Amino acid sequence: MMGDNGTQALLATIESGEPEFERRESGDADCFQKHQHTKEARMLRKTLNASRLQQEVDRRIHRLQEVVEDGVKIHVPRPQLQEADATGCNWNMRHFGNAIGFERSVEGVLKAVRAEYNLSNEAKEKVDPFGD
């Protein structure tokens, strides 16, 4: 089928059923494509500080048709830094205020924003104005 050793080794790895490979049929030839993993997905996220992330979630929630129609003001908490989860996201938000009846919509926004952004973990340097 294929002559070079590198290709044969790749095919052997793929044929072994390792989950990171996907086999696709393409006409007469077999094509293999490696899936992007969490490490690569993590690099695709933009980074925002806590205030900007809170503003982005707030903006998206208050743009939702059902929220606009009801004229409700949902309190958006500050994002909390956490260990990166399986998707690579390093933050979460809990305890949205005045969100009763909008839980599913808020969860949808939160899921979308968590997929796009990570929380910057750079702490602001505290500057002592007196030089101590």
What would the keywords be for this entry?
single chain, 132 residues, alpha+beta, two-stranded antiparallel sheet, 5 helices, 6 strands, 37% helix, globular
SSE inventory with pairings:
Elements: H1 5-15, E1 21-26, E2 29-34, H2 38-43, E3 46-48, H3 50-61, H4 65-70, E4 80-81, E5 91-92, H5 103-116, E6 117-119
Helix pairs in contact: 3-5
Characterization of this structure:
With 132 residues, this protein is α+β, with helices and mostly antiparallel strands. The chain has five helices and six strands, in the order αββαβααββαβ. The protein has helices at 5-15, 38-43, 50-61, 65-70, 103-116, and strands spanning 21-26, 29-34, 46-48, 80-81, 91-92, 117-119. The protein has a two-stranded antiparallel ribbon with strand order 1-2. It has a two-stranded parallel sheet with strand order 3-6. Strands 4-5 form a two-stranded antiparallel sheet. α3 (50-61) crosses α5. The radius of gyration is 23 Å and the shape is globular. The termini are far apart. 11% of the residues are buried. Mean pLDDT is 76; it is low at 16-42.
Shape: globular
Which regions contain 5 or more consecutive residues with pLDDT less than 50? 16-42
Name the average pLDDT.
76
Query: Main β-sheet, in a few words?
Result: 2 strands, antiparallel
Q: What is the structural class?
A: alpha+beta
End-to-end span in angstroms? Answer: 73 Å
Quick one: how many beta strands? 6
How much of the sequence is in beta strands?
15-25%
Helix amount, in percent?
Answer: 25-40%
SS field, number of helical segments: 5
What is the H/E order? HEEHEHHEEHE
Strand order of the largest sheet: 1-2
Give me the Rg, rounded. 23 Å
